[in-house]
Amino acid sequence: MDGRTRLRLDVSYDGTDFSGWAVQPDRRTVAGVLGEALDLLLGAGIATGLTVAGRTDAGVHATGQVCHVDLPSDVWREREPTLLRRLARLLPGDVRVRAVTEVPAEFDARFSATFRRYEYRVTDAPYGAEPLHRHLTLAWPRPLDLAALNAASAGLVGEHDFAAYCRRKENATTLREVTRLDWRREPDGLLVATVQADAFCQAMVRSLVGAMLVAGDGRRPAEWPASLLSHRERSSHVTVAPAHGLTLVAVGYPEDPAGYAQRAELTRRLRVPAEA
Questions:
Q1: Domain that holds residue 180
Q2: Catalytic residue among 2, 14, 26, 57, which?
Q3: Degrees, nearest 5: CA angle 51-56-58
Q4: CB atoms within 10 A of CB 23
Q5: Can you give the pTM of this predicted structure?
Q6: Which of 118, 218, 231, 256 is the most exposed, having the fewest neighbouring CB atoms within 10 Å of its CB?
Q7: Are 126 and 229 members of one domain?
Q8: 108 given a catalytic annotation
Q9: Which residue, among 3, 91, 88, 84, has the nearest Cα to 46 in the 3D structure?
Q10: Residues 46 and 140 in one domain
Q11: Binding site: which residues?
Q12: Does a structural domain hold residue 246?
């Protein structure tokens, strides 16, 4: 990091027309679009090490995504006053960088994170999703019971092996600690699940939602989602909920910057090569 400055970028995006976060050949991705904008603004290859807190899947949205990049310190000093506004002019309307903040070199958007928090939106209205919200809300065809949804979620909180809910990767752990999982019904009738954990396996949140929804509409007992935690392989009985209902809303980090490196070391030891 000698002669370079690390920057934290707070990012929001509508995932509808993106093939997820990670760069993929011949596909439109959030990282690809953001990297192109940085290259156009700063020069090719000037911004390096783009690292994200959590690589969201195709169709998943974010209001609280976090990533970091490294810039030459002299470039940062020159561009700091105008960088955010210039990025706004270059980026397409479905992705925004909301803040650019200088952080210590020990900050790692992925490994320094202490939690990721998602929300999943569902409507059980008989007419389906409101047109203006259709890209953010799953329309469920059956009535959902809030008490049943929360009863189903209760048994999933805590540290468990979530193999039944994860797409397993070679040599990757499926052990995760879910610190919050609950449902609320908004005044307009919309149901919102909040799911928070230290990290998530690929498709884990949508798999949990899929299991809870069939308990919420009465087709499975409330105990069923938690009973799957005894499985050591992905359960074929779990349907992954569609991506468009899911939004990454927050990523947490140690309050004291001195804790960034320690948290990153602990996470690498526990998670590598697991997907956050």
A1: 115-251
A2: 57
A3: 130
A4: 16
A5: 0.94
A6: 256
A7: yes
A8: no
A9: 3
A10: no
A11: 118
A12: yes
Residue that is written with structure tokens 């189903």 in the block: 152
User: Which residue ranges make up the annotated binding site for substrate?
Assistant: 118
Are the CB atoms for 253 and 104 separated by under 8 Å?
no
**CA-wise closest residue to 220 among 247, 199, 238:** 238
Burial of 74 (0-12, 13-18, 19+ CB in 10 A): exposed
The total domain count for the chain is 2
> Domain check: are 133 and 16 in the same one?
no
Q: What is the pLDDT along the chain (276 residues), one digit of tens a residue?
A: 679 999 999 999 999 999 999 999 999 999 999 999 999 999 999 999 999 999 999 999 999 999 999 999 999 999 999 999 999 999 999 999 999 999 999 999 999 999 999 999 999 999 999 999 999 999 999 999 999 999 999 999 999 999 999 987 777 788 999 999 999 999 999 999 999 999 999 899 999 999 999 999 999 999 999 999 999 888 899 999 999 999 999 999 999 999 999 999 988 877 554 333
Contacts of 154 (CB under 8 A, 6+ apart): 181, 226
**Cα 141 from Cα 159, distance rounded (Å):** 32
User: What is the Cα–Cα distance from 30 to 59, expressed in whole angstroms?
Assistant: 11
